[in-house]
């Protein structure tokens, strides 16, 4: 049946450009049936004070991930991957991709990880009366205006990474509303950019075209967003085997596809995505009473309001520590696979003290706006009487991944935002019962992990692509609830009172120790002894 669906061109392809991996995911007639996956490892570069990815790396990585998937299809099903029924593209949200009249990029891609837009974000927050984070595209544009960068006068199109890839595949300059909400504020009544705020910005800034002319058209989940062109097919598959014509859904950000992949698009639900960054999305029942610089107001792919707690720093520092132990094992003559290293270290953390024995870990490789830092210095801190054991070390490191996130979530709790269940996805949840348990303690809320947790956004955008065929009769919430997750196996961890108390004590130290983190940023320059 799977081979027949592939041969008939009914399979659906999801592609996500994450911060460390580009993933491709192919699903069958039953979208829970993952037929094949492909991946390509990549990494951002820090060039001239800017976190970036080269656009040539984007296409090389997409080609490699698609080739990996195609080879898997041929090996498993003995049919070539020549046609697909629908395609979805997802990528890291926010950032700044600016193009001129000739469609050439004007400056290198500025990713979400850059924190050089403080003045612009502050001005826009005051102008709009809502929080404008450092990462948002409008903050990057306005900072370029404030800095009088020469390229600004030539800008004719702004988009996100997902929007850029979709544009090249289809020729259409569009964006899903969830991703668009990380470029410029969305009016929840219209599902489009807030017209009053667009006018307010145009009145403030001279020398560039009206902002609406620069931004992608906003689409909602279920809308048709173009078809794969011959040139687009060649970008994914230079061998020429992949045929054009597949329908594409609106391109989305990784936050939105994470919500879809975890069935967290209805009010009183939320999800946590843990990767290079970590963020929580909570679907709102009511507007927040106050403006909080720690909280972004974005939307689901269907356009419903969401409170987002976004932390620039996620599991990268944890992975660095795991890599150190992996190297130790190899140097000792007993090499251990990276996945097994993570499994051993995570399970060891279960034996740690509830408060991590007085140890403290900061995972700040980059600036962290919620913590008030504009640069990162990873730190591990202990007092002489701390219980310095491997179990406590690893518990502190995992707690550290959730530290800044917990600070933001405390604000939502104070705003009386109701949360029945938090769904989690990302690679660090593959070891059952560890990160999930500690996240439940950090949030003091049940945390659910599904079988597809490690597939993440690539599967989520495949669901959105498949949803296009159902959107005329179902809304997104109903589609996910009744057609995708009705019989899905989900493991739920409820907060353990001892863990909750232990993490609370850890967070008190974490908050107090931020002074040490800020001092390290001020005292230690990058690239210098």
Automatic annotation (TrEMBL):
<dbReference type="InterPro" id="IPR050406">
    <property type="entry name" value="FGGY_Carb_Kinase"/>
</dbReference>
<dbReference type="InterPro" id="IPR018485">
    <property type="entry name" value="FGGY_C"/>
</dbReference>
<keyword id="KW-0119">Carbohydrate metabolism</keyword>
<keyword id="KW-0418">Kinase</keyword>
<keyword id="KW-0859">Xylose metabolism</keyword>
<keyword id="KW-0808">Transferase</keyword>
<dbReference type="GO" id="GO:0042732">
    <property type="term" value="P:D-xylose metabolic process"/>
</dbReference>
<comment type="similarity">
    <text>Belongs to the FGGY kinase family.</text>
</comment>
<dbReference type="Pfam" id="PF02782">
    <property type="entry name" value="FGGY_C"/>
</dbReference>
<feature type="domain" description="Carbohydrate kinase FGGY C-terminal">
    <location>
        <begin position="271"/>
        <end position="467"/>
    </location>
</feature>
<dbReference type="Pfam" id="PF00370">
    <property type="entry name" value="FGGY_N"/>
</dbReference>
<dbReference type="InterPro" id="IPR043129">
    <property type="entry name" value="ATPase_NBD"/>
</dbReference>
<dbReference type="GO" id="GO:0016301">
    <property type="term" value="F:kinase activity"/>
</dbReference>
<feature type="domain" description="Carbohydrate kinase FGGY N-terminal">
    <location>
        <begin position="12"/>
        <end position="235"/>
    </location>
</feature>
<dbReference type="InterPro" id="IPR018484">
    <property type="entry name" value="FGGY_N"/>
</dbReference>
<protein>
    <submittedName>
        <fullName>ATPase</fullName>
    </submittedName>
</protein>
């Amino acid at each position: 049946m799977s081979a027949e669906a592939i041969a008939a061109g009914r399979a659906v392809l999801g592609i996500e450009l994450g911060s460390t991996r580009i993933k491709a995911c192919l699903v069958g007639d039953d979208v829970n049936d993952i037929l094949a996956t492909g991946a390509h490892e990549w990494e951002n570069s820090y060039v001239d004070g800017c976190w970036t990815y080269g656009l040539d790396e984007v296409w090389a990585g997409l080609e490699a991930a698609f080739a990996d998937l195609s080879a898997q299809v041929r090996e498993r099903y003995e049919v070539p991957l020549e046609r697909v029924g629908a395609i979805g593209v997802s990528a890291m949200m926010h950032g700044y991709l600016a193009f001129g009249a000739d469609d050439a990029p004007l400056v290198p891609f500025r990713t979400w990880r850059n924190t050089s837009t403080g003045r612009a974000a502050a001005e826009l927050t005051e102008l709009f009366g809502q929080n404008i984070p450092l990462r948002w595209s409008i903050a990057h544009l306005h900072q370029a205006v404030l800095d009088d960068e020469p390229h600004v006068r030539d800008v004719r199109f702004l988009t996100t990474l997902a929007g850029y890839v979709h544009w090249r595949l289809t020729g259409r300059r569009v964006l899903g509303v969830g991703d668009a909400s990380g470029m410029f504020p969305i009016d929840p009544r219209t599902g489009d950019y807030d017209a009053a705020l667009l006018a307010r910005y145009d009145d403030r800034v001279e020398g560039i075209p009206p902002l609406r002319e620069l931004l992608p058209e906003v689409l909602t989940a279920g809308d048709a967003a173009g078809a794969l062109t011959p040139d687009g097919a060649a970008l994914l598959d230079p061998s020429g085997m992949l045929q054009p014509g597949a329908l594409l859904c609106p391109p989305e950000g990784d936050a939105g596809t994470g919500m879809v992949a975890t069935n967290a698009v209805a009010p009183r639900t939320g999800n946590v995505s843990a990767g290079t960054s970590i963020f929580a999305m909570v679907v709102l029942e009511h507007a927040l009473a106050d403006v909080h610089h720690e909280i972004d107001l974005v939307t689901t792919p269907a356009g419903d309001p969401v409170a987002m707690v976004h932390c620039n720093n996620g599991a990268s520092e944890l992975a660095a520590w795991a890599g150190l132990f992996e190297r130790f094992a190899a140097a000792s003559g007993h090499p251990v696979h990276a996945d097994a290293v993570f499994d051993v270290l995570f399970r060891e953390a279960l034996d740690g003290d509830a408060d991590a024995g007085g140890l403290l870990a900061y995972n700040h490789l980059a600036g962290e706006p919620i913590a008030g830092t504009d640069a990162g210095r990873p730190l591990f801190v202990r007092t002489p009487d701390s219980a310095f054991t491997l179990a406590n070390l690893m518990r502190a490191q995992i707690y550290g991944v959730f530290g800044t996130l917990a600070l933001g979530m405390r604000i939502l709790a104070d705003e009386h935002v109701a949360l029945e269940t938090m769904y989690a996805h990302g690679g660090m949840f593959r070891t059952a019962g560890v990160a999930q348990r500690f996240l439940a303690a950090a949030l003091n809320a049940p945390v659910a992990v599904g079988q597809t947790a490690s597939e993440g956004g690539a599967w989520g955008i495949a669901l959105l692509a498949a949803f296009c065929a159902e959107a005329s009769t179902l809304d997104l919430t109903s589609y996910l609830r009744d057609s995708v997750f009705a019989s899905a196996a989900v493991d739920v961890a409820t907060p353990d009172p001892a863990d909750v108390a232990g993490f609370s004590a850890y967070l008190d130290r974490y908050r107090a120790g931020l002074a040490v983190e800020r001092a390290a940023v001020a005292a230690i320059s990058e690239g210098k002894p």
